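Fold this sequence, please.
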Amino acid sequence: MELYSYFRSSASFRVRIALALKGLAYDYVPVHLVKSEQLKPPFNTLSPTQLVPLLKDGDALISQSIAIIEYLDETHPQPPLLPADALGRARVRALALDIACEIHPLNNLRVLRYLTREMKLSEDDKNRWYRHWVESGLEAVERQLAGNPAAGRFCHGDTPTMADVLLVPQIFNAQRMDCRLDHVPTVMQVFAECMKLDAFTAAQPSACPDSDAP
């Protein structure tokens, strides 16, 4: 397998965690987003969306982090990243989508560039936008975790699931952008539990081959 990734991409980070949790080996292919390598050959000929991550498994090319994670879960079922019961799977997917759909799209590189280049927002205004949506989005996740009997050491029970795989990269981004996190203590407790596991630490941005890219 090959993973086209950028070390600061939280969506790529998700897939790296999933691969690590399942103990799957892969070749890391860096795509520098800040230098717009995603828009140029050879990557743009592989990915119609011109987005990372992109997983190449044999002749198959799979895009979108959640689709990749579910593909890995179906083709390599152990350890599972989704619960065995339908209600549990729905809860984990909902938590994952709260991050992937309600927080991340408002703060990815394309949006931030548009805010400053096209909308002419200042850096301070852009950062205020970023922090607002991350902080309010994580607060919604906090409400679903705090006091919920389905939660445990992790977002759902005592083993990591796809919800944790998505949560950790979002916290990394929040910390990098100096977002307020004291209002989400349960979220941060789950984050701390995740970071005790090798799969999460080994997948973090600083461990990537391109982590020193300017």
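The beta strands are 2-5, 27-30, 54-57, 60-63. The chain has a mean pLDDT of 96.
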